[in-house]
Amino acid sequence: MPRFAANLSMMFTEWAFLDRFAAAADAGFTAVEYLFPYDHRPDEIAKRLSANGLTQVLFNLSPGDWAAGERGFAACPGRQAAFRDTVATAFPYIVATNVRRIHAMSGCADPTDPKLRDLYLENLCWAADILARHDVELLIEPINPRDMPGYFLRDFDLAGEILSAAARSNLRLQFDIYHRQVLRGDVATALRELMPLIGHIQIAGVPQRHEPDLGELNYAFLFGEIDRLNYLGFIGCEYRPRAGTIEGLGWLRRMTR
Ligand SMILES: O=C(O)C(=O)[C@@H](O)CO
Ligand SMILES: [Mg+2]
């Protein structure tokens, strides 16, 4: 059975952000991920990780002004300086948390514009080369447009093209099974084909994005496939609990017993 990381942006939201680390550890998790750490000091986060014996698996570069609709800058025209700033901003958090994987959001832009594809590629290569010196992977994640309208990276084929054009061993795919199912389906075959590119996996039930125990996907089967494909990383539990985080953890106990 794969190892699971609690996503503290979606789970344990009954607690204040810094208290979610202890709550996740008390619930049996040994690893966490979240979208953004930037509202808190790096040393505060590091303290919570070490006090609770947790591994930091992943977080994102800053998306910019989320409330104003910004979703990262990697593919956004005229925002190259802003993108580079997000890498600088992330560094104290990378060092403090010892995270090995960072997700760069593409932003909202037109994916059919070849100039933006070139810009995206250039920005990703620039950031990946810097992160490589610190032994950190940079990830890109196709996100379905129902959840994030207008998002640039909304297609697994485009992600594959970008990764192969970049040819950077530390630039990899964040395969969110929830988004894959909404975008294209054919999850097991895609996992098989894309496994050499995958740096991180996330899960949720489809279509409601609740626990992975209800809905159109058979996660028991998919976890078996992921093991069979020798995926050694964590799986991020990026779902919104139906009725309380702790109350909803029955699926994890059943799958891991
Ligand atoms: O929405 C998702 O799925 C993510 O993994 C986030 O990092 C991006 O919003
Ligand atoms: Mg995701």
TrEMBL record:
Gene3D superfamilies: Divalent-metal-dependent TIM barrel enzymes
EC number(s) per entry: 5.3.1.35
Coiled-coil regions listed: none
Class of the enzyme per the UniProt entry, highest EC level: isomerase
Listed Pfam families: AP_endonuc_2
UniProt xrefs under InterPro entries: HPT_OtnI_isomerases (IPR053398), HyI-like (IPR026040), Sugar_Epim/Isomerase (IPR050417), Xyl_isomerase-like_sf (IPR036237), Xyl_isomerase-like_TIM-brl (IPR013022)
GO MF terms, alphabetically ordered: isomerase activity
Keyword Metal-binding tagged: no
Segments forming domain Xylose isomerase-like TIM barrel: 21-254
UniProtKB keywords: Isomerase
NCBIfam families in the cross-refs: OxoTetrIsom (NF043033)
The family this protein is said to belong to: Belongs to the hyi family.
Protein name: 2-oxo-tetronate isomerase
Organism: Dongia soli
